[in-house]
Each structure stands twice: as structure tokens, then as C-alpha cells.
Amino acid sequence: MFLLAVFYGCTRKEQHGQNTKTAEDSLSIYLSLANDVNMPLTFKQKYNQRAFKIVINQENDSLSKANLFKIANRYYNMNDWPAYFSTSKLILEKSEETKDSINIARALTYLGDYYSVQLISDSAFVFYFKSEKIYSRINDPYNLAKTFLNKANLQYNESDLFGSEMSVFKALQIIKGNDSASDLLYESYNLLGVLYNERDEYDKALEFHGKALKCLENKAIPVPSEFQSKATSLNNIGYVYLGMKKFDEAKKYFEEGLKQENLKAEKPSLYAMLLDNLAYSKYKMGDFKGLPDQFFQALQVRDSLKLTSGIILNKIHLSEYYAFRKDTFKAVQYSKQALLLSRNHKRLTNTLEALKQIAAVEPENASIYSEEYIHINERLQKAERKMGEKFSRIEYETNEIKSENTSLALQIRNLVYVFGFFTLLGLFLYVYKTQQARNRELLFKQQQQIANEDIYNLMISQQNEIEAIRIKEKKKVAQELHDGVLGRMFGIRISLDSLDKIDETLAAPKRKKYLTELKNIEQDIREISHDLSKEKADLINNFVAILEKLMDDQVNTFSVKLISNIDPHIKWELVSNAVKINLYRIVQEALQNCNKYANANTVKVEFKSEINHLVLTIADDGIGFNTKTTKRGIGLQNIAYRTAECKGTFTLKSVKGEGTILTIKVPIDQKINLQNHDT
Predict the structure, then answer these.
(1) Do residues 169 and 143 lie in contact, with contact meaning Cβ atoms separated by under 8 Å?
(2) What's the pLDDT at 19?
(3) What stretch of H or E contains 669?
(4) Mean pLDDT calculated for residue range 42-63
(5) Could you give the CA distance from residue 13 to residue 54 in angstroms, rounded to a whole number?
(6) Do residues 21 and 40 touch, judged by C-beta distance below 8 A?
(7) Which fold has domain 1-139?
(8) Which CATH superfamily is domain 558-678 in?
(9) DSSP state, 289?
(10) Is the dihedral of CA 461, 462, 467, 470 positive or negative?
(11) E strand or H helix at 521, and its extent?
(12) Shortest CA distance to 571 belongs to which of 653, 488, 483, 669?
């Protein structure tokens, strides 16, 4: 059994004063009707949509965003989650357009609330965290404290009780002595009461629930009656007494909670919870007056609101009740319904409660249900631990690590005592020798890294020198063409023009002379072109030579067989220097990973040209690993980063015992580059 805690703030109300004037006279009417608790849901949705159509056509100013927040609030109250989400997302976009930090933070909180209701806790935590950072930056203590409380509620729902408690105390530190934040003070005390009840610290739970009630009794604290905060606290106090098995006390608080004015209309979910808890406490104390009708009344309300967890709990209570009344058929029927509903909605906590109950009323299959109970309980515990880590419990984990190290040291000391002095001496020598070997290996790796850095720097400097030579040669060619070839061609053209004015017999030998001169100019142009082609080949071969030098170092240093293949059709002149450098570093990093971890006999490095792509493949026949469960190290992260720098794709395939294949595809637009090159 668990408590479906209802906290202050679960129902949204307005946080801003009523605007004195709206863009349309009907807007305030639509908003008012959409918030009328006596209005049918379909009508409220229709009025809210009309209000939205008016606001969406307004200017993107603070007034229009305030109205959009009101519309989102009403969707929240209606449990219309798709509309609430889309409206909140729209507010965020409009606030980001105007760089409105306050409304950005508020919209992020609304989106966090959406994911919290949808039980997508990690996404909710991210949005709360983003809003927390903004509120902290703009120095908004009230909303910062409220964000901490949102996170605390989220952590509580994921059973991260320690993290939830810490978040509540952070909020209390902020709002301490702040009279304007007294509503948050109530929520903080209420949540602490629920947390301590979960830990079975009943005295502390009652203490904080009592403080929460006192906050409500203080007339200076503006707590709207529509929130039904008093009924919430009375329910929570009654639930503490249920845990203490003081059923008569629990009954009193549940009955008092049900007496709160307008409870059923304003908070039907809380009304159903109080009614169910009252019926359960009466059943436990042997008072069957009004039973099982009160159980069925609560179930009817929860069915109408589609409160899955409440429905499951209600049916478990009915199963317990009928089991006590010896009506085995109904007891089994309701427990099976609860189990089926919890399985369909994947509510593991509810499933555990349903399994416990059905095992009690159907003892012939108890062993089957108990086995499933144990399996689900283990899954739930793992999920809770994982979610707790996501919510960050660094201090706790640090203490755990220290505790483990201390325990390991004690084990080693005990082992030394058992084996005696000679064992200790042998262990010392072994550690000493091992450390020496590791130091030598580390020194070698450092030297190798320095050498790799030198090669990298050399490559950059060589590329710069080649580029400078290319520029120099281009200037030289330009001068040769301008001063030599063009001048001579101009002279020949003038001379050929002059031949038209003389006799053909005299012009023939001169024309032959000029043709010979043109052949000489043609040979000069061919030599210049040959020089340019030779410069391009040198530039290409320079990068290939650097790659081959890296692979030669690998072969000379390690025993692993290296097979390399560089496609001669690759147009290296079309590959930018930045891409070449990144490819070189990727090969270098991949070879280092093979040497360290792969335990391979053969490594193959291949550069291949595809249409509009340059493909680098590095494969080994080593031990491999599971890519889904193994965390990526710094080396693979660097490779992924460098691939992204080249705007390429990075694929890693590995199977234990079958080796690893790393594939890098870098886009090279051959057509565009060829055009640029020809130009």
C-alpha cells in the first residue's frame, strides 16, 4: 500500500493580477468560463480554445504571454495534457523570441510539470534544472525555491527520498524569514511529513504535518481555499496513523478531511482518496458501517477521473475487505483486476501491491505470484537506484566509495595477517615490480605521445610551407606568362599583321619564322604546366607520406600485423587541410586503442573513395566488446568529435571475440571542388 500524496500547488491558479483591460472584451469571459468547476469538461475546453484564438492574434508582449499562461493553467486543471504541452511549448518559443528570461524560466517549469505528470522523470528533471539556473541568475528567490520543491516532488515520486529531502531543505534555506513565500513553507513541511512517513519515522512525520497545518491556521498566510490544502494535510496525517496501526485516530482525520467545504467539486481526486482511506481504516478497526459502499463511491470517482493508481489501490482494498468477509470469489476477482490494470499501465509499485494481495487470497498459486513479486521488486529497486543517480547524489556516492575503500583496506590487512610476514614481503615485491613495469609503459606512452604531437605539428608546418611555395610559384608563373609569353605573343601578332602589307613572296619566310617562335612559346607554356602538375603531386604525396610514416612507426613498435591500403583514386587535393589533420589524428587514436585494448593479431587501415565521400575503415581481429553496455572512453569520444568536425558519420561495430570495425565517412563534394579547383 502506498500514499498518493497531494501537495499544495498541484492545481494551477493564477499568479498575476487581473488585467484591467484585455485585447478583446470576450477574453476574460472565456477564461472565466473555462475555469468554472461546475462547467462540463467539453464546454470548458471549447471556451479555452476560443480564448486561445483571441490571444494568438495579439502582439508578442508580456500581456499576451500572461494570457497564454492562463490558458495553459486551465488546460492543466482539465487534465488536457496534449493542449497543455503545446501551449506551454508555444509560450517558451515566444519568450525566447523576445529574450524574456522570467517567462522562459516559467515556461520551462510548466514543461517540467507536464513531463512529471506523464511520469517521464528524466525529462522533467532537465526542464526543472534549466529553470533553476535562470531563476538563480536573475535572483528570483521565490521561484528558485519553488523549482527546488518541484524537483523534490519529482525525486520523491521516483523513490529518491534522500535527494528529495535535500531539495526541500535547499528550498527552506531560501524562503526562511520570507513572509511572501509562506505558501511554499506549507508545501515544504507537507512534503517532509510525507518523506518521513515513507521512512517509518512517524513522530517526525506528524511533527512536520502539524507544522503544515499551523501554516494554514495563520490568517496572514494567503492559501486559497480552492487548493484544499487542509484536506490534504488531514489526509496525510490520517495516513501516518494508518502506518502506525492506530486506525481510530486515522479515521478521525479522514472524516474531518471529508468535511471540508467544496472538497468533492474542487478536488475530486482528493475526495476519493479520503473516502477510500476512511473506508479502509474502518475495515481495519472492524467498523463495517457504510462498507463496502464507501469503497465503491471512491472507485466510481477515480474511474471517472481515470486515476489508474487510485483505481488499483481501491480494488486491492476491496479484495482485502471481501477476503475478510470470506467472499473468496470477489476477493480474487478484485485482486486480479488490480493486477491486470497495473500490468497494462506498467505501474511496478502497484503491481507489487496487487501481487501481494492476490497471493494472500489465492494461496494455491502463491508461489507463482511470489516469484513474480521478487522479480519485479528487484527491477524496481534497480530502476530507483538508476534514477537516483540521474538526480545526482554525489556526496552520498563519495561516502560510499570511501566506505568501500576502507573495507578493502581491512580485507587486505586481514589477508596479510593470515599469510604472515613472507606473504607480505612477496606481495610487496610483486607490487614493486608491477609498478616499475607500469612506469616504464607509461614513460613509453608519454614519449610516443610526444612523437605523435611532433608529427602532427610537422604536418601542419609542412602544409603551411607547401601553401607558401604554391603561392610563390603562382606569382612566378603569372610573371612568366605576363612578362615572357604574353609579350612575345603580342610581338608576333603585330608582326603577323604587318605581313598583310608586303608582297607574299617576302612574307612567306617571315611567316615561317613567326610560326617557329609560336612553337617555342608553346613549349614554354607546356613546361610551366608541367611544373604546376608536379607541385600538385608533391602536395598530395606529402600527406600520403605522413600517413605511411605513422603506419611504419606502428609496425616497428608493436608486434601487431598492419595492413594498409590507400585508394590511388582519392583526390587529396580536394580534401581540406582541416579534414586531413582530423583523419590523421583519428588513425593515430584508433591504432593506440588497438594497441592498448584489442589484443589483436592483425589491424587493417583502408582509405577508399566513394561518390562524394571519403571512407576510412580501421578493422582488427581482437577481443571486441559489447557496444551497448560498454561505456565509451576518451579515445572513442575524441574520434567521434573529430568526425563531427569533418561533418562526417562515425560507425562502430564490435562483437566479443570477433573484433572491431570502425568506419568514418567524410563528405567530399567532388563536383563543387573540381569547379573551384579548375577556377
Answers:
(1) no
(2) 41
(3) none
(4) 87
(5) 21
(6) no
(7) 1.25.40
(8) Histidine kinase-like ATPase, C-terminal domain (3.30.565.10)
(9) T
(10) positive
(11) helix 504-557
(12) 669
Q: Are 612 and 601 in contact (CB under 8 A)?
A: no
Mean pLDDT of 314-334: 91
Q: Provide DSSP, 25-80.
A: HHHHHHHHHHT-TTS-HHHHHHHHHHHHHHHTTS-SSHHHHHHHHHHHHHHHHHT-
Are the beta carbons of 603 and 564 closer than 8 angstroms? no
To the nearest 10 degrees (0 to 180), the angle between helices 141-157 and 101-117 is 20
Predicted local distance difference test score (pLDDT) of residue 666: 92
Query: DSSP string covering 641-653, please?
Result: HHHHHTT-EEEEE
| Dihedral angle sign, alpha carbons of residues 407, 409, 413, 419 | positive
The CA R_g of the chain, rounded to the nearest whole Å, is: 39
Q: What is the DSSP letter of 619?
A: E
Q: Is the dihedral of CA 324, 329, 334, 338 positive or negative?
A: positive
Residue found by looking up cell 478484485 in the block: 334
Q: Provide the mean pLDDT of the chain.
A: 79
Rounded Cα–Cα distance for residues 563 and 123 (Å): 47
* Alpha carbons within 13 A on the beta-carbon side of 34: 27
d(CA 10, CA 672): 59
Per-residue pLDDT tens digits for 228-267: 888 999 999 999 999 999 999 999 999 999 998 888 888 8
The C-alpha atoms of residue 3 and residue 257 are separated, in whole angstroms, by 15
**What string of DSSP letters covers 568-603?**
TT--GGGS-HHHHHHHHHHHHHHHHHIIIII--SEE
Q: Looking at the predicted structure, is the pLDDT value of residue 514 above 80?
A: no
Residue type, 340: L
pLDDT at position 1 over 60: no
